[in-house]
Structures are given as structure tokens and as C-alpha cells.
Amino acid sequence: MRLFNYFRSSSSYRVRIACNLKGLAYEYLPVHLNRNGGEQFGDRFTTLNPQQLVPLLEDGDTRIAQSLAMLEYLDERYPDVPLLPRDPAARAQVRQTALYIACEMHPLNNLRVLKFLTGELGLSDAQKQRWIVHWLETGLTALDTQLRDAPGRGAFCFGDTPTLADCCLVPQLFNARRFGVDVSAYPTLHAVDQVCEQIEAFRRAHPSCQPDAE
Amino acid sequence: MRLFNYFRSSSSYRVRIACNLKGLAYEYLPVHLNRNGGEQFGDRFTTLNPQQLVPLLEDGDTRIAQSLAMLEYLDERYPDVPLLPRDPAARAQVRQTALYIACEMHPLNNLRVLKFLTGELGLSDAQKQRWIVHWLETGLTALDTQLRDAPGRGAFCFGDTPTLADCCLVPQLFNARRFGVDVSAYPTLHAVDQVCEQIEAFRRAHPSCQPDAE
Fold it and tell me: Within this chain, do residues B26 and B48 fall inside the same structural domain, yes or no?
């Protein structure tokens, strides 16, 4: 398996966690999002992925864009160490959490979006920071409330083993800290994060442990 | 089944298409995103969905936020008229398309995001329009390129029956037209849209046919 990757990309981080949890080895292929005008926009990478985003996963002849499509694929193709429960209603609870992070939080503070705001639209650094923190705080508040009251809660977001929700939550909290948000203000999320931190599969996926870390 | 809904919300539109394709009846519960400061922010709706977003699906005791979590749930719980192929690699191709729309396109031009840009950050209407069109054109170009070359193409995005990808594409093209983008400039997407337009399940899900349409 080959994973086109960027150490700090939180969607890349999700897939690294899932591979580690499942014990799947992969070749790490760095794509530098800030060098040479962004290597993801180069002809070579664009041919592989017209979406021009990392991560990109190759498993034999199968090439997959979008981190959540990868996580679902890995769970279907390598079902040992499942990352989703079996019951459709329980699966939906996990997915609504993962998707809230992937759809409503991460894309708004993505590198390409921040660059457009300050470059093309001329926002100041202070306005950019206000934008970032607004969406982080809105998102973390919603997630913390929803998880606190979730019927399936355990040591992890849902139950006592990691799921897609934890694979998305931990990178999102890393991202929030990077932008100065105090994650301990969200007690439910913070507790899950501390449990995940004890697990080797999560620790090895951390941006600081990757070959292209700066 | 009960679907909390807004006629023009493209994520609501996705779920209406899926229910119609599967022949599942639902009660339509309108949530007006622009009235009374946004009914999705009211106490009543926030208790049901702390994410404060439509759609929200209730099926008996199961309550689900996030449209793609609903589509996956409906496909698992009501597997007649499947919306995903069976092979994991083929499923991943469908999901990478649906997720590109749900993660990289729709959230950026969401009502709450546009309101923050013009309200809190003081962007002009011209700047707002530039932002909207930039992400629509970037996204439609990537999608058209990726789908044109996809091995599984048929009359629909993938194969000869509708999938999650079509449930997401048709509402996204409706949204693009609303903002003045010429969708016929994307021939692969446009062809799929025209096929879907012939199908009753898609037509009945159109915003103009909903009880809260303005």
C-alpha cells in the first residue's frame, strides 16, 4: 500500500491512524503542500488525483481520494480490527461524528481556503485567525455536546475500541491546538483524546513522527 | 421516517433523492434556515441536533445528522435498490466522489459560511460572489476530470444505476446554477445531470417541489 501524504494534513493523519490500528504497512510518499507552489498542484500528482488534495491511497490497482472513502475501504477490505460497529444505527452515530469533522470543520480551515482568504480576498492575519477560531469553537462545542449525550459512549467516542470518529477527532484536536484553541475546555473530547494518546497506533501517526516533519 | 428539511439545502436534497429512489416514505418537517434568526439555532432543534444543521433524519428511535451518514444508513437498513456497488474498490470510487462534493464544495458555500464572510468579516457582495464561484469552478473542474476518466462510468456517475455520487452531484449542480455557473461547461457532469433529470425520484426531490418552497 502507498499513501501520498503530508505530515501536518489532518486528513492524512486520519488514514495513518487507521492503517496503524489495523496493522497495515504502507509506503509513505510525501507531497509538500507548501513547496514549489504546492506539489499537489503539479502535473504528476494531478494526473493521479484530479482533486489535487492529499491524502491519496493506492492499494494494488485501486487508487482512492478522500480520507473517509479510504477509511471505509480499509474497513471493508481488511475487516480485522473493525473501525465501525455492526449495527446500522450505531454505524450511523459514528459516521455522523466523523462526517461533522470532515465536512463542517476541517474544510473551512484547510490550507487552500486560508490562502484564498488572505491572498485573493485580502483578509488580514487577524481576520484569518478570527475565521479559524470561530469554526473551531463552533465545531468543538457541537461535537462535545453531541458526544456527551450519546448513548453509545465509552472510553472512546463510541464504545471501548477506536472507530472512524476517533480517527477524525484526534487530528482535529491537534489542528485546534495548533491554532491556539484550549482543547481542555471541551471535557468529553479532551477525555477521549487522552485515552487515544496512550495508544501506540495513534502516537505513531502523529505529525511530529513523520519522515517529512519540519 | 421523519426528515427535518429545508427545500433549498442541497444536503437535504440528497436525502430526499435517496428516499425516493428506495421508495421510502417520510414526513417532511420544514426547518427554515432564514426565518426567526434561523430555526436550526432554536432550542428545540438544537436539542435534537447539536450540530444545528439540516437535514436530520429520524427512523423510529434512531436519529441521524449528516446527510452522508443518512445515505449509508438507508443503504444498510433498506438494501433494496442499492446506492453503492458491492465491491470495496468500486464503493470507494463512488464515495470519493460523494465526499469530494460533501467535504470540499458544499461546506464552503453553505449559508452559515457566507453569512460569516459578509457579516463578521465584512466582505462585499462582489467578494462573496468571487469566493462562491471560485470554489464551484475548482470543484466542478476536478469532478469532471475525475469522472471523465473513471473506469466504472455509465449513464450515471458510476454504472447504469444511481449511487451516492449521483445523489450528491445533482443537488450540487442545482446549487451551481443558482449562483450563475454555466454547468454545461462540464460535459461529463452535465450528461449525468440530464439522465437524472428524466427520473421521477430525482424530479420529486427538487427544491421547487417541496412544501416549504418559496
Answer: yes
Report the CATH number at residue B63.
Answer: 3.40.30.10
Indicate if A97 and A182 belong to the same structural domain. Answer: yes
> Chain A neighbours among B 108-147 (CB < 8 Å)?
108, 113, 116, 120-121, 123, 127, 130-131, 134, 142, 145-146
pLDDT value at residue B36 = 80
Which chain B residues touch A68 with a CB distance below 8 Å?
95, 99, 103
Q: B177 in contact with A at a CB cutoff of 8 Å?
A: no
pLDDT tens-place string over residues B56-102: 999 999 999 999 999 999 999 999 999 999 999 999 999 999 999 99
Judge whether B34 is closer than 8 Å to chain A, CB to CB. Answer: no
- Any chain B CB within 8 A of the CB of A87? no
Domain assignment present for residue A54? The answer is: yes
> What is the number of structural domains in chain B?
2
Domain boundary among A81, A98, A125: A81
Q: Which CA distances in Å does B2 have to A193, B8, B29, B63, B67?
A: 34, 18, 7, 9, 14
Q: What number is the ipTM of this complex?
A: 0.97
pLDDT tens digit sequence for B12-63: 999 999 999 999 999 999 999 888 888 888 889 999 999 999 999 999 999 9
**Residue at which a domain ends, from B81, B109, B130:** B81
Residues A60 and A112 both lie in one domain: no
In which domain, by residue range, is B63 found?
Answer: 2-81
Q: Residue A198: phi, psi to the nearest 5?
A: -80, -10
Q: Which chain B residue lies closest to A113 (C-alpha atoms)?
A: B108
Residues of A in contact with B70 (CB under 8 A): 92
